[in-house]
């Protein structure tokens, strides 16, 4: 059922892009398999050539360990969360480099969350994986900067998405943000999209290794 829902979302996205891209390319890629990653981007290279931007919006963790004590997470679930939510960004970027697919001014972007910086209730294993992703951005920025490629992250506030449904007490988190954030409201998806557009554009040409919070200022609150 989940796969059907995800495919529906992708189909809807493809349809919404028709005004700018009449035939948007959709390629399946299993980020836990190196051969699948290479095959997917070889297909993209053949069809589209080099790319100037990549948005890494992938995360997964065993829902069983998003509640309770973090200490109870088992090894397999820990490794799986890191492999898909963090390492996949490195694996994809490396593939793009080896296939010579990145333009000189390319911009790579990933999505993170405050749970990687602070303890967030019912985020547990995903918080640790996001911390790994945050560090990955910095080290990748250093490596790829030599080629003129920038690497950044957006730390968005809670948004009602398919993935968010897997986090217990998500509605409670929204209410807290709306109450305590300086701008007194939750994050609008368009605000995240606008920030991504900025990071992909030449306007951000001097920014790399950075994490930009798009959460109406909630991350500055200390209580």
Explained architecture:
InterPro entries: Enoyl-ACP_Rdtase_NADH (IPR014358), NAD(P)-bd_dom_sf (IPR036291), SDR_fam (IPR002347). Belongs to the short-chain dehydrogenases/reductases (SDR) family. FabI subfamily. With 223 residues, this protein is α/β, with parallel strands linked by helices. The chain has six helices and four strands; from the N terminus they run ααβαβαβααβ. The chain has helices at 2-16, 34-48, 75-98, 124-145, 170-180, 189-200, and strands at residues 51-56, 102-112, 150-156, 211-214. It has a four-stranded parallel β-sheet with strand order 1-2-3-4, with helices on both faces. β2, α4 (124-145) and β3 (150-156) form a beta-alpha-beta unit. α3 (75-98) packs parallel to α4. The longest helix is centred in the middle third of the chain and has 24 residues, at 75-98. The radius of gyration is 18 Å and the shape is globular. 27% of the residues are buried.
From the structure above, extract its key features.
223 residues; alpha/beta; 4-stranded parallel β-sheet; 6 helices
Question: Care to give the gist of this entry?
Answer:
This protein is α/β, with parallel strands linked by helices and 223 residues long. Helices cover 44% and strands 13% of the residues.
Strand content: 5-15%
> Strand tally, please?
4
Distance between the termini: 39 Å
Order of helices and strands: HHEHEHEHHE
Q: Helical percent range?
A: 40-55%
Query: Could you list the spans in which at least 5 consecutive residues all have pLDDT below 50?
Result: none
Overall SS class: alpha/beta
Cα shape: globular
């Amino acid at each position: 059922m989940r796969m059907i829902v995800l495919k529906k979302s992708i189909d809807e996205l493809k349809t919404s892009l028709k005004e700018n891209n009449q035939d948007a390319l959709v390629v399946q890629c299993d980020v836990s398999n190196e051969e699948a990653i290479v095959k997917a981007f070889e297909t993209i290279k053949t069809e589209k050539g080099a790319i100037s931007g990549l948005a890494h919006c992938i995360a997964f963790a065993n829902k069983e360990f998003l509640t309770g004590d973090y200490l109870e997470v088992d090894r397999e679930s820990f490794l799986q969360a890191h492999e898909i939510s963090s390492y996949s960004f490195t694996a994809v970027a490396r593939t793009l480099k080896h296939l010579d697919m990145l333009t000189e001014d390319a911009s790579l972007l990933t999505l993170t969350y405050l749970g990687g910086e602070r303890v967030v209730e019912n985020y547990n294993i995903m918080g640790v994986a996001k911390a790994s992703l945050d560090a990955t951005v910095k080290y990748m920025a250093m490596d790829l900067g030599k080629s003129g490629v920038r690497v950044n992250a957006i730390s968005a506030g809670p948004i009602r998405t398919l993935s968010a449904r897997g986090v217990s007490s998500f509605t409670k988190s929204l209410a807290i943000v709306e109450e305590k954030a300086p701008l007194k409201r939750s994050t609008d998806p368009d605000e995240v999209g606008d920030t991504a557009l900025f990071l992909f554009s030449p306007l951000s040409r001097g920014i790399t290794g950075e994490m930009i919070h798009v959460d109406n200022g909630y991350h500055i609150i200390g209580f």
